């Protein structure tokens, strides 16, 4: 599961990835979750921006932008075509 982007209590724009964990017999064993900070992905997204007109972005299935390089104020369209 991936959350929608949100702002944390520390004012960091983040998303959470989570997965249920089940034992071999199918019983619930817990949840594994991680909060992703966009700064960790900035280097990767900047590395594929090879010309001024090129953009790279991470967004959820609804088209909500998590991170975009280079940073811009207007929204990225929800399609990647």
Description:
The protein is mostly beta strands. Helices cover 11% and strands 37% of the residues. Strand 2 and strand 3 form a beta hairpin. The longest helix has 9 residues. The protein is elongated, with a radius of gyration of 16 Å.
Quick recap:
The protein is mainly beta and 81 residues long.
Which key terms come to mind for this protein?
81 residues, mainly beta, two-stranded antiparallel sheet, 1 helix, 5 strands, disordered C terminus
SSE layout and pairings?
Blueprint: E1 6-7, E2 13-22, E3 28-36, H1 39-47, E4 56-59, E5 65-69
Antiparallel strand pairs: 1-2, 2-3, 4-5
Biggest sheet statistics: 3 strands, antiparallel
Q: How are strands sequenced across the largest beta sheet?
A: 1-2-3
Structure annotation, total helices? 1
Query: What overall geometry do the principal axes of the alpha carbons give?
Result: elongated
Give the overall average pLDDT: 81
Approximate helicity band: 10-25%
> What is the β-strand count?
5
Instruction: Measure the end-to-end span.
Output: 24 Å
Outline the low-pLDDT stretches: 76-81
The Cα radius of gyration reads 16 Å
Please identify the structural class as seen in this structure: mainly beta
């Amino acid at each position: 599961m991936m959350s929608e982007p949100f702002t944390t209590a520390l004012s960091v724009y983040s998303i959470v990835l989570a997965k249920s964990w089940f034992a071999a017999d199918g019983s619930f064993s817990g949840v594994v979750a991680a909060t992703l900070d966009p700064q960790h992905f900035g280097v990767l997204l900047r590395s594929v921006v090879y010309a001024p007109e090129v953009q790279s972005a991470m967004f959820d299935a609804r088209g909500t932008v998590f991170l975009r390089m280079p940073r811009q104020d207007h929204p990225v369209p929800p399609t990647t075509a």
